[in-house]
Amino acid sequence: YLLAVIDLSHRERVKAVRRDFVANVSHELRSPLTAIRGYVEALAERQSEIPQGERIVGGLLRQTRRMNLMVDDLLQLTKIETAKPFVPEEQTPLALKAFCQELVAQIDDQQRQERDFAVKVPGKILLLIGRKKLFSLVNNLVENAIRHTAPDGRIDIRWRKLPQGGELQVRDNGEGIPAAHLPRVTERFYRVDSGRSRDAGGTGLGLAIVKHQMLRIGGDLRIASRPGIGTTVTLHFPPRVVKLAALSVDDDTDDVTLHPELQERGVQFDAKELP
């Protein structure tokens, strides 16, 4: 037998120092950025009085907003890394289908009208992960899909039942990602095409946030893509965060039915008793 003892305390101290540094810098940047954005927005109201004002002020606004988003994303990553252990039982069950439909409805009108969105999620699926976490996960994936899918493209949000938990997929028929880049796309600030990504408004942190969020809840993130064909991002949720609603409603007939597992246990239900 061979017993090896490796001291990882230095590595952990380095991680802690890096984490604290990122958090402190982000906090320090937030206040001056807020002030700068306020001044730029004030200038925007009088840009007609400035030579080439629309181009200059518009550029300043875009960059300050992008920096604000980056600071917010960095702070979110730090919070994920330092958060207390995740306990599903402390979360309020969220109806996944209604949540995804609401998220799509909130997308910018032009972006929603230019692309074909479809939500293919059973109405009985409930997730125990918290509204903020779920919004961060799904919104990051949908925004990425929009950013890399041309107008007239298609974006699907679908659920797949598994023996152990389930999967939520965001699938598009956009530009796709070359295979050589797939192992690194969840790294912080990694960009397949840096110039194009910055022009599109991304911070380079979205997939890193999704990856860390999924690890915190005991799930995982997988990405499959082919250039010119599209990308499918899959979130695997473990059984402890996936629940089935006792009642489900048929989208076509509005019929309310009891979940089969409850029927097998002898539970009775009369739809006429519903308000």
Automatic annotation (TrEMBL):
Q: Which CDD domains match?
A: HisKA (cd00082)
- Keyword match Transferase: yes
Q: Does the keyword ATP-binding apply?
A: no
Record-linked InterPro entries: BphY/WalK/GraS-like (IPR050351), HATPase_C_sf (IPR036890), HATPase_dom (IPR003594), His_kinase_dom (IPR005467), HisK_dim/P_dom (IPR003661), HisK_dim/P_sf (IPR036097), Sig_transdc_His_kin-like_C (IPR004358)
Please list the GO terms describing molecular function. phosphoprotein phosphatase activity; phosphorelay sensor kinase activity
Q: Its Gene Ontology biological processes?
A: cellular response to phosphate starvation
Q: Output this protein's name.
A: Uncharacterized sensor-like histidine kinase ycf26
